[in-house]
Amino acid sequence: MTAPLCAQDYAELARARLDPAVWAWLESGGADELTARANLDAWPALRLRGRALRPLAGAHTRLELNGQALAHPILIAPTAWHGLVHQDGETATALAAAATGTPYVLSAQSGTAIETLAALPEPPLLWFQLYAQARREDTLALATRALRAGARVLVLTVDAPVNGVRNAEQRGGFRVPDTIRSVHLDGLSPPAARPAPPGGSPLFDSGLLESAPTWGDVAWLRENLPAGTPLWLKGILDPEDARLALVHGIDGLIVSNHGGRCLDTLPSTCEALPAVTRAVAGRIPILADGGIRRGTDILKALALGARGVLIGRPALHALATGGAPALAHLIQVLRGELEVAMALTGCRTLADVDTDVLWTPGA
What we know:
Helix content: 25-40%
Order of helices and strands: HHHEEEHEHEHEHHEHEHEHEH
Structural class: alpha/beta
Strand content: 5-15%
Strand order of the largest sheet: 3-10-9-8-7-6-5-4
Radius of gyration: 20 Å
């Protein structure tokens, strides 16, 4: 293959380079992978409305999010264990993020500590992803650690109290190697599990779900964080959950189905986004992830109400292909594709992007 020109090129190069078991871990979706495929299929199925002779002088992709001025609406999604795909792990990701002005949502399951990334000569704009821990105090301690290291936003992932059924990953024989660990979870208490009784359920009868997070845990965390700390929820698909997030003082939402890796047959994020947008009604910002592979996908997400998008698997594809330079190149490619799509739909700035960008048959 010649030099990669788009996200799909990076995916093909990554597959050729990675151990098949690691590729199975990276690409697998839940069960029959229907939702994972729907994420990829839904964005291209939308059609854009090309417009001619619109004024485009001074065009740009700048925006403000959480009081932070950003050059473009692309963020790097939280994904675990970047060391599986590149020797420099999350450090390479952070370098690419800093070079391109891209916020990086560092995973709680990263193999590199947030303090290490914050101490880089040119650190990126760091957000931090939380998973609710078995003990509320551990969740708060992890959040406090991230804030002290310089995290600007906390992102609580709420759609994975248990892992999905990932048959493709199981068939691939993936196991986390001994050289990789989730460094932020060191010393925290795991869920207290007990043996299931004979004939009982290893999930329902083991006590694992007794520590699954609830809206009460969200309220407790919101109350105990320092005043003014931006707290977002990741994994919201249902408009009723979006309305509950508003009641609980949440500062932003990420419409996500966990890359199709948890509950299969959920709607794609493209399908779920409009209803969440209507429920929020502009009161807090929304981001979206899942299946973003082209600048046109980004434009469509913005048209449906998102302020920006996150890339997960594509970031790891680029990282596996060529480390920080490759990831920086991919981000610039996606930004360039977005700019072309904006120009050809007559959008000078992101403020011009709304549902009128989308083509409606017969209109």
